[in-house]
UniProtKB/TrEMBL annotation:
It is an enzyme of class 4 (lyase). Catalyzes the dehydration of the S-form of NAD(P)HX at the expense of ADP, which is converted to AMP. Together with NAD(P)HX epimerase, which catalyzes the epimerization of the S- and R-forms, the enzyme allows the repair of both epimers of NAD(P)HX, a damaged form of NAD(P)H that is a result of enzymatic or heat-dependent hydration. InterPro entries: CARKD, Ribokinase-like. Residues 8-290 form the YjeF C-terminal domain. (6S)-NADPHX binds at A43, G101, H153, D225. The gene is nnrD. This is ADP-dependent (S)-NAD(P)H-hydrate dehydratase. PROSITE patterns: YJEF_C_3. The lineage of its organism: Bacteria, Bacillati, Actinomycetota, Actinomycetes, Micrococcales. AMP binds at K195, G196, S197, Q198, T199, G224. Gene3D superfamilies: 3.40.1190.20. NCBIfam families: yjeF_cterm (TIGR00196).
Length: 293
């Protein structure tokens, strides 16, 4: 347990699933996205854009009407579902991304609960992290540890740990980022991707994988929502949670470097500013780099 591996292009290229002639949109993976809310409708667009650009065969979006409309305006290929309908009949999806920009939306909370009960593979972000941590600590673990990926930033990791009885300061966390990510992973029996300039992915009872430093231009509102969408597409394509997290973080960082014009090998901020949607648009170019490995 706890052995370290650094992530590089060859590792990601060997894991990334490319479509084959026999594929159809379902076999390539259908991602259900429960993201965005009346308070944060833009997170829905960013999360869906991340999933679509990373190669999902289909994206199903579940959320409030205004967010549905924004999603369709930006990504008309998305199939949208009202959260009130989805509670009765969960849309069929190979994996789910849930929680980015979700805040005080009872319909979405009910869908998130139903997905977790179903045991489907899922990425859990932002507004869904604390409830998931509490539920898994209490033993409600329908989804196996290698199929659930929690994606906190440092503030969210502190709150998720507090929700399960571990009070941690920002200084404690920064002194040992991997140790605290592992504390959440082992206590909840879930895979944890801790975001930051250097992202780490911790599998419970397994390895820690450390990503290269990303361009500091990536520290911009909504870029984490794009990452959650990418990871959902990769879980839906059949990767396990740790591999999906590693590949998503690598492609996300490369897409940001490409969009910024920063040095992809040693990003130092020498490029220009990027927005979250710029990162999503650059994902296909980052995926193309994988074929050179
Ligand atoms: N366009 C949109 O709709 C956007 C929606 N977003 C959503 O907005 C909600 C609130 O997210 P926020 O993170 O902004 O605010 P939160 O209210 O979740 O967190 C704020 C607290 O966490 C700390 N914190 C925030 N980001 C951090 C980071 N990257 N690393 C370490 N500590 C950090 C701050 O110091 C602060 O104490 C989330 O659901 C998120 O997904 C954001 O992604 C921004 C864009
Ligand atoms: N200083 C930094 N350098 C490089 N990447 C960063 C830095 N800070 C944050 N990131 C990355 O940017 C993204 C921010 O995600 P998050 O904090 O969830 O923001 P949001 O909630 O606004 O989407 C993550 O992928 C994280 O790894």
């Amino acid at each position: 347990m706890g052995t370290e591996r650094n992530v590089d292009l060859a590792m990601v290229a060997s894991l990334w699933r490319r479509p084959v002639p026999d594929d159809d949109k379902y076999s390539r993976g259908v991602v259900g996205v429960v993201a965005g809310s009346d308070a944060y409708p833009g997170a829905a667009v960013l999360c869906v854009s991340g999933a679509a650009r990373a190669g999902a065969g289909m994206v199903r979006y579940v959320g409030p009407r205004r967010a549905q409309d924004l999603v369709l305006a930006a990504r008309p290929e998305t199939v949208v579902h009202a959260d009130s309908d989805a509670i009765d009949r969960l849309p069929r999806a190979s994996a789910w991304t849930m929680g980015s920009g979700v805040a005080d939306q009872p319909g979405q909370d009910a869908v998130i609960g139903a997905v977790l009960d179903s045991g489907a593979p899922c990425v859990v972000d932002a507004g869904a992290l604390q409830d998931l941590a509490r539920a898994r600590q209490a033993g409600y673990r329908a989804t196996p540890p290698d199929r659930v990926l929690m994606t906190p930033h440092e503030g969210e990791l502190i709150r998720a740990l507090a929700a399960i009885g571990h009070d941690v300061t920002r200084a404690d966390l920064q002194a040992d980022r991997e140790g605290h990510a592992r504390l959440l992973a082992e206590t909840t029996r879930a895979t944890v991707l801790l975001k930051g300039s250097q992202t780490v992915v911790v599998a419970p009872g397994g390895q820690t994988r450390t990503l290269p430093m990303a361009t500091p231009w990536l520290a911009t509102a909504g870029s984490g929502d794009v990452l959650a969408g990418i990871a959902g597409a990769l879980l839906a394509s059949g990767l396990d949670a740790a591999d999906a997290g590693v590949c998503a973080a690598w492609v996300h960082a490369r897409a940001a470097a490409l969009a910024s014009g920063d040095d992809p090998e040693r990003p130092d901020g020498s490029g220009g500013p990027v927005t979250a949607l710029d990162v999503a648009v650059a994902i296909p170019r980052a995926v193309r780099l994988l074929k050179s490995a």
